[in-house]
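Researcher: Let's do a round of design. I'm pasting the structure tokens now; please hold your answer until I've finished.
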């Protein structure tokens, strides 16, 4: 329980200087000086020396830059190669995405890419963020490069932009550009099964190769097929902001 005089919104927790020291800002003494100099904010307000924080709830910034994410949560960005299944286990024994990232703590893929689709896939043990990112109400943008058969004429590109009729309903408007002669850059915010492939098929230009190049703010041209990296704190924060309830 917070005692009299506790700051509004303060949680019980660890002393701020201890957390900063653990996060790599220097000795506790150095971190106390950072706090005393007014360089540390908690939930937007300049923190004072006695402040306790709970990293699971409080947003801590040093010089305006948020410090690490809640302990125990991991976020990996994987460049999924073709042929790897987006699942946490496969009874048929096919290669699966979780085998391409560290086994512990256990993570699961956020959304899915078809087995024959390549590109960026987020894996995490943060169930709350994963749930929101895949919820249609948040409409996180996903960008794809689709190599297609033939050269789609302007009318086909327009149809893709405006929405095409699929067997599970009309697709929402999308951002679509032709990279001549046969690549479509497509940005959608829905997540229906095989959506991009079905959209392209519907306008008469089946997909030959499909690569996801962006998930929300997440991009990485340097990540080779099968490679992964941890998200930066700023990327996690940006995702959180994108799926924050209004
Ligand atoms: N659309 C598809 O058709 N396949 C994917 O893997 C992702 C989006």
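Researcher: That's everything. Go ahead.
Model: Designed sequence:
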């Amino acid at each position: 329980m917070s005692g009299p005089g506790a700051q509004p919104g303060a949680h019980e927790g660890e002393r701020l200087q201890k957390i900063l020291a653990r996060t790599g800002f220097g000795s506790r003494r150095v971190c106390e000086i950072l706090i005393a100099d007014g360089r540390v904010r908690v939930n937007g307000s300049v923190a004072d020396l006695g402040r306790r924080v709970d990293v699971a709830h409080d947003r801590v910034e040093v010089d305006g830059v948020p410090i690490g994410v809640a302990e125990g949560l991991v976020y990996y960005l994987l460049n999924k190669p073709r042929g790897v299944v987006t699942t946490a286990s496969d009874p048929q024994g096919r290669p699966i995405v979780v085998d391409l990232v560290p086994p512990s703590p256990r993570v699961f893929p956020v959304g899915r890419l078809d087995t024959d689709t390549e590109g960026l896939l987020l894996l995490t043990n943060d169930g709350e963020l994963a749930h929101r990112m895949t919820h249609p109400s948040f409409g996180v943008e996903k960008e794809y490069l689709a190599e297609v058969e033939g050269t789609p004429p302007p009318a086909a590109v327009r149809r893709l932009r405006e929405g095409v009729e699929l067997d599970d309903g009309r697709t929402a408007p999308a951002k679509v550009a032709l990279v001549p002669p046969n690549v479509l850059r497509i940005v959608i915010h829905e997540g229906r099964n095989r959506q991009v492939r079905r959209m392209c098929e519907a306008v008469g230009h089946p997909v030959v190769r499909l690569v996801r190049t962006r998930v929300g703010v997440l991009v990485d041209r340097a990540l080779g097929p099968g490679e992964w990296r941890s998200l930066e704190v700023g990327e996690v924060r940006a995702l959180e902001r994108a799926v924050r309830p209004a």
